[in-house]
Amino acid sequence: MFEKMTGESLEELAVRLFDAGAVRLGDIEAKLGRRTPIYFDLRVIVSHPKLMMAICRQLQTLANEIPHDILCGIPYAALPFAAVMSVNTNTPMIMMRKETKLYATKKILEGVFEKDQKCLIIEDVVTSGGTISEAAKTIRAEGLQVAHAVVVLEREQGGANVLKANGVHVKSLYTMTNLVKILRNAGRISDETAEIVSDHIKECQFGYSV
Question: What Rg, from alpha-carbon coordinates, does the chain have?
Fold first, then answer.
């Protein structure tokens, strides 16, 4: 059973996420043309301030266990979470651009930072681990240290192991198994859907090095 924080458990938060449309079911095309029976879309949360705050509180619980000097949210879904966490905890934040700025400063990282500061990556979902691995590589190239990431959902498809092999340890609010169990117990998804998702996790695994 997950522990409560500020009066709301992770089970309750999961149900609120589902009801807000952040969990979509069906044969959905995900990143790079991959198909998935369940899709976690946290971009909708920018329209739900109270839900945004609840997620950030829970992410901060994970972050409190990790030594860090600065935060970096992966664009675009995790940027709002990093921003709220930064303001709530008075922790500096940097932003990573999708591509290097082609004029003026020509930066890939926006914000103020110093060499060897410990940077904590914030992300919404880990599937293959590729996005966080590339982000860590970019941030390290700018002289910062990256050893941890906190995420909302770890899909259990090999991404966490890929990241660990690349020196990034992941802490998550939910694994896909946990999330599906919570939603099934709450009557939001059927036993059949839960089985389909479980089979998908087993069949679609990633294990390459980035």
Answer: 17
